[in-house]
Amino acid sequence: MGFFDKLKKITTNLFSTFTEADETFFEELEETLILADLGVETAMEAVERLRERVRKEKLQDQEAVRAALRRVLVELLDAGTTELNVSTTPSVMLFIGVNGVGKTTSIGKVARLLKQGGKRVLLCAADTFRAAAADQLEIWAERSGCEIVRQHEGADPGAVLFDALQAAKARGVDVVLCDTAGRLHNKQNLMAELAKLSKIIDRECPGAARETLLVLDATTGQNGLVQARTFKETAGLTGIVLTKLDGTAKGGIAVAIARELKVPVKLAGVGEGIDDLKPFDAEAYAEAII
Predict the structure, then answer these.
(1) DSSP 248-279
(2) What confidence category does residue 1 fall into, taking pLDDT thresholds of 50, 70 and 90?
């Protein structure tokens, strides 16, 4: 069974034993949510909110308590709009994140999603440090039916982005999706690189709608929260793309990130297919796990 199936089975067993003001139930629920990677503080807050709701609304029915917990999770996930901002032509999206989280793959899937919505999309291969990163992105450009701007390995990422923005303006492209390096020597280098790319966008496309999306692997659990915290400090995130939410992923990290960092999860990867990256739906997510 995948993560959602496992957690739902556990919570179903828990709710079947629920009785009003049953402290053992609340303690076991808190432990379950911590194991699902909501994190200690988020799990404690979720259970406390549920306990308060049970008391105020005098809930005694198991299904009513289950529905109340779903509402609590949806509230904790509310960190702003989950819609992608593509309100200008061109709009620009920077995809950031460490190597191995599925960043390049996510860009290809977002390109597909936007193209299906009628947008003309251009991919920018600005991760010039990782061997074959541009080749991988080119494969996704072909699969999604989108254009790509790339240079040789080791080229200046800023130069690649400059070329992509010039091409976008000349061709009437709606959205530029920019891949970025996932490995730099230290935090200062990362800050400098992202700041440089941001300045190029400001200079070449002033007023353009911008998204800075952090791609996170849900299976990394609490380490994903650490990554999100660091990247928010350095890059000013507008949203999260959560990959590998299917399978054995501890997808509760979505709640922890939204609650602590106030950064919305905008897209969720639920499979390996090109159409398996979906707009994140907090209510559907809560329904799937509780």
Answers:
(1) T--TTHHHHHHHHH---EEEEE-SSSTT-EEE
(2) very low
